[in-house]
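Bump. Still looking for Ribosomal RNA small subunit methyltransferase E structure tokens.
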Amino acid sequence: MGLPRFYIPPNQWQPSSLALTADEARHCAQVMRKEAGQEVVVFNGNGAWARTKITSSGKDRVELDLVEWGESSAPAVSITLFQSIPKGSNMDLIIEKSVELGVNAIVPVFSDRTVVRLDAKDAVKKQEKWQRLALEACKQCGQNWLPQVSVPVSFDAAWRQLPAHDLRLIAAIQEDSRSFKDTLAAVRVRKGEEKIQSVLMAIGPEGDFTPKEYAAARGAHGCLPVSLGSIILRVETAAIFCLSVLRHEVGG
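Sorry for the wait, here they are.
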């Protein structure tokens, strides 16, 4: 079993004077009962990590001595998950698996058929919860790049907030949608030697996106429709499937 992992925000990351504070210190000292002389790993969510030795342990601050440190390379391809929020706790699972699969950004969306509805205050609370889940997933799986989870917004608002991408895809059940293999092959032919550096993957809710939303995604927002096969997948399965294929096919 590896060393326990803790998070130090980038603005507090100083390899010469590393320390855990607030919730991370309490978790280390009181929950995991780590003491002076024991080793832990810390990371800053931007690729940097360090193996350290505890010099003092308290509920508000845990002082650390640097043993060794390094930098994890950023994924070669930045993947954004544009995810219509599913029912129940399925978004929690999607967040966790997205981290494991190396996603860079997660954009939760209220589409027309989304069952979950939140006011502005609750949307912020939900984002904070999902960001914490992403952090915990990073700790568990050894991921040193922390993806950013956006505050959930409407379908139209989400598109307005997004940057440009080299490739945008949308999971589709329409007859003219093509397989991942054929779609990516056509993209490679079109781009030639130009490398794909950023991809957006859009996944609908239970009941899928509406025809109007599909038209907007494919038209104004440049998404290519991809088929996930003949079997209808659950929302969380579709997200994991698409991200796995992208990670394998476009690398990173």
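The chain has a mean pLDDT of 93.

Edit: fixed formatting.
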